[in-house]
Amino acid sequence: MEEKIITRRDFLGVAARTAVAATLGAGIMGEAKAEPTARVVLIRNAEVVGSDGKVRGEILQSMLDEAVRSLLETKDSPEAWQALIKSSDIVGIKTNSWNRMPTPKELEAAIKRRVLDVGVAEKNVDIDDRGVLQNQVFLKATALINVRPLRTHHWSGVGTCLKNYIMFVPDPSSYHDEGCSPLGKIWTYPIVKGKTRLNILCALTPQFYGRGASFFDTRYVWPYKGLIVGTDPVAVDAIGAHLLEAKRIAFFGEDRALDVPPIHIVAADKTYHVGISDLNRIQLIKLGWADELLI
Amino acid sequence: MMRCIKRAIHKGIYTRIWACFVIMVWIFTVAEIVEGEQKGKMNPEISLPAEAAGWTWDGKEMRYSSKTLFEYMNGAAELYLAYGFQGLTVRKYEKSSQPTITVELYEMASSEDAYGLFSFERQDEAVGIGRGSEFGGGLLRFWKGKYFVGIYADGGGVEAESAILTMGKATADLIQEMGPEPELVDLIPGKDLGLVDRSIRYLKSHILLNQRFFIAHRNILNLSRRTEAVLAQYTREKQKTHLLLIRYPSVKEATDAYQSFLGAYLPDAGGKELLKTEDQKWTMARQRSEVVVVVFGAPTAADAEALVKATEEKLRRGRHQENKE
Q1: CB contact under 8 A, A5 and B217
Q2: pLDDT averaged over 10-residue windows placed end to end, chain B, 325 residues
Q3: Which residues from B are below 8 Å from A6, CB to CB?
Q4: 3-class SS at A292?
Q5: Is this complex scored with an ipTM above 0.90?
Q6: What is the pTM assigned to this prediction?
Q7: What are the structural domains, with CATH classification, of chain B?
Q8: Strands lying side by side in the sheet with B239-247
Q9: Which of A12, A217, A260 lies nearest to residue B139, judging by beta carbons?
């Protein structure tokens, strides 16, 4: 059977999101009535980023702890961390080191601190981005924690948790076709499959719009001062993409198109079954500062 | 006699010592100059200032090839590779209590490629630097000759923004070659039809085309490094229309691409070149020799026809001019 070619016309006259979903073979509207199957925490604090742009590590640590506690519905945060990580685990903290907007060091430190608190030996924890395929801790990892900033991205529409695992393959550029829709496939490879205990989108100062490969523009970065945390990377990404979309509408008065629509999030759900992308099936728990929440 | 011999020996030694001294001084002097030149060079063809507007180069220089560009770009390297990337040199400039300024100098295969890279992301006001420029959000972008340059600071501020522009002008002045724009850009109709200048994109791959204007997930227009495409937006009475002009290496390749487009995008047009699509707007495609013209989203069939005809007229004039030359 000849493959159907998806053209611009498939998106004309109907809402793009519905068209994308239909294209990928989903019955999203029908499934919307199902019970929520993913849980995501959005936590914010007005003081976590100072007027000088500096991150206050102690506040960030408490935000992370509270988010994890709420996510797992435990009585305190140590119990939550113990539910995520065992002392015998070898833990890789997959970060993002892009020089214009890296994962804040304070957030990396906060995660590592809690992994050590659980009892994991220091030699069995490491933080890395582009060197994961040469890093013995990541190669032997029994648990991964995925953390990166939330922003738009030239090839995938949004740079979120799913995209962050592209460094686990030796040929990242092979995953850039069709809006990076094959990204979800990476999550099915043995090096990461079933190992990710927590996904954290750092939304302290997200970038909501970009244009092309340089994709950093101070006009399109705002101090949202939040973290988006969950165990389901697709659900976390769907919330992140939704937040950026809401901000674009607030800023431009319309949802100004990204370089590509973030179809890889839906593809990760419908094609690779990595998690839940349908916002109607994601339970979003909002904690903390509520000004200009947007979602 | 012996005294004479000893004197002669001594004289010879002194001469040799003196000669060695002169040679060593020359060697060290030349070495210093060479080293100085290398430090001042971004590239064998271009030297950059070591200082501008009070910001001083930190003395380090990073260079990237097509194999290592991915390390610097975090996934964005393919855009540059699509435009014939040859090499990147990065320098940082510092000033006390001010944000660091980064200068990125990209050497591309041709001035057309440098223009293409610039055009792909253009959205801001021009600032009169190089052959084409824009400045917005703290980022200066310009092209000149076969070079594309990006300059930005790690933070905001009036002083840093002013320094970015000063550094941009100084850098542009050091690039001697002006370099032509792609000829194809001159073949699109102008402002009388509502051309939005900053919307003009010169494209070398279907992936890049899709990022600016999604047409199909497959390469139905057979775009490649061997083809040239120009995408432009026309706005009249708030109605947006897009024009795509593609030149192929041969008439046969243009014919194949035209037929591929009709089959994949306008299969219900019954072989005709004009169709009202699902958004109640008009798409029109036409082939003229090695060129394919497509109009998307025209409010009326007459608007689509007018844009195609205006393009054909410019093509005809362009060919006439070529024949005269």
Answers
A1: yes
A2: 45 48 40 34 62 92 87 72 91 92 94 96 91 89 96 84 95 94 94 90 89 86 94 90 97 98 95 93 97 97 96 86 65
A3: 216-218
A4: coil
A5: no
A6: 0.68
A7: 45-174 (3.40.1000), 183-324 (3.40.1000)
A8: B201-203, B228-236, B239-247, B291-298, B282-288, B274-276
A9: A217
